[in-house]
Amino acid sequence: MAEVIWTEPALQELDAIAEYIALDNPAAASDLVKEVFGKTERLENFPKSGRIPPELPDSVYREVVVPPCRIFYREDEQRVLVLYVMREERQLRAFMLGNS
Q: Parallel, antiparallel, or unpaired for β 3-6 and 61-66?
C-alpha cells in the first residue's frame, strides 16, 4: 500500500480551479474536489491505475483524469506523489501549440 502525498503546487492549483467553478456553482466545485480526492485515494492500492500522459509516453509520470482536471503524479513502491493539477484544455492547447 502506497502513501498518497499531495505537493503544495498541486493543492494550490486544485484550489484555484475549485474557486473558479464555485463562482457559478459552489456545489459543483465541492463535488469536483471530493471526486479528485476520491480518485487519488484509490492510488494507495492501485498506484499504476492512472494512464501515462499521451504527451509524455516515455516518462515516469502518470495521470488521473477527473474532468475538467488532469492530476499528474509519480509513484514508487512506498509513495504516490501528486505533483500537479491542471485544467484539461490548458494542457491540450499547450500540446497542440507544441506540434504546430
A: unpaired
